Amino acid sequence: MHFAFSDTAQSYIHRLQQFMDEHVIPAESIYFSQLKRGERPWTVPPIMVALKAKARAEGLWNLFLAKGDHGAEFGQGLSNADYAPLAEIMGRSFIAPEVFNCNAPDTGNMEVLIKYGSAEQKQRWLQPLLNAEIRSAFCMTEPDVASSDATNMQATALVEGDEVVLNGVKWWSTGIGHPDCRVVIFMGLSDISPTAPKHLRHSMVLVPMDTPGVKIERMLSVFGDQDEPYGHGEVSFTNVRLPISSIIAGAGRGFEIAQGRLGPGRIHHCMRAIGAAERALELMCQRALSRVAFGKPIAELGGNPDIIANARIAIEQARLLTLKAAWMIDTVGVKAAMSEIAQIKVVAPNVAQTVIDQAIQMHGGAGVGADTPLASMFANARILRLADGPDEVHRAMIAKLELKQYKKSAH
């Protein structure tokens, strides 16, 4: 593995960092002041519209689309290793991913449509998403089953003649509250036979939000916050009828599509988590040097030097492992990188959560309020340990792959 970033990556790193410093970070306070919390919290702040137009004009747009996934056609054609440091830079700000049209779940949904969507589906949904004219959501997790095991899924997507009929309840559907959310990808059982192969029973279906039978039952809060303007909703689907052409890639291919969606997306999440950890460490160091207690800067008190040193070590380790996973996806593919992907899914959010928590501690009361981004960053890091599957599932995968090579040699 080469540790130096490519010339292309270095160019984008410089441009993106400059844009973040000049436009995004200074706009954060304006963004939240325009979010109109209270009577109408689900709005699009005008500053976001302006930032997106500026980013697109400067070619800092749809950066997430990898070279091998028609990236040159739809995005900038960067490799995963090229994009990883850019995702880290975006991770320093809550608002940055959307500014560059690189925010989940839209990124994953666009990747699905590029890889598996029909020409009609691409025209109707992909192009507006690439242009940020609409937003989307992904409806997979269910309230009544342990969704860490997707074979537990109860919602159905049954083919009846030339239609597919959806029934079920989903929750934690991120982005469903955004005023521009126009379509969701729904995953459900299209083969309810108990003897059917468990990974060939599911389908993914494109569902316009205005389809009869689709209802947002409630918006869910996370640590008391509704995460406006995106939000996480509980959504019911009651006899929702759609043309069979709404199924992505055909019935029974839901698991295949899900696996194709998960690899690069985890690189994105993990690098953003590392970016958040870097910003937290930066704020921690600034606070530790500027705040005096008991006659000394708090950087010199107690175990704080060790805390700062350990944070730096942990971030560097997490970054290197994530870059290795990105490099492996580029060079040997997602399947060969499954262990590394699972490893970073455990490591990056845990490192971010720990570093951000330590930064909060050094800030005292200021760390848990709205004067710094630390409280929101902590919540995001903690959520990430569930959102892409719980740590325990990823550890089980790592152990399974590790033991597999020894089982082969034993025979």
TrEMBL record:
Task: Alphabetically list the UniProt keywords.
Answer: FAD, Flavoprotein, Oxidoreductase
Q: Which Pfam families match?
A: Acyl-CoA_dh_1, Acyl-CoA_dh_M, Acyl-CoA_dh_N
Record keyword Oxidoreductase present: yes
Molecular function via GO: acyl-CoA dehydrogenase activity; flavin adenine dinucleotide binding
All copies of the Acyl-CoA oxidase/dehydrogenase middle domain together span 137-240
* Keyword Repeat part of the UniProt annotation: no
Which cofactors, if any, are listed as required? FAD
Q: Which family does it belong to?
A: Belongs to the acyl-CoA dehydrogenase family.
Quaternary structure and interacting proteins, as annotated: Homodimer.
Q: What is this protein called?
A: Acyl-CoA dehydrogenase
Supply the source organism for this entry.
Answer: Sapientia aquatica
Q: What are the top taxonomic ranks of the organism?
A: Bacteria, Pseudomonadati, Pseudomonadota, Betaproteobacteria, Burkholderiales
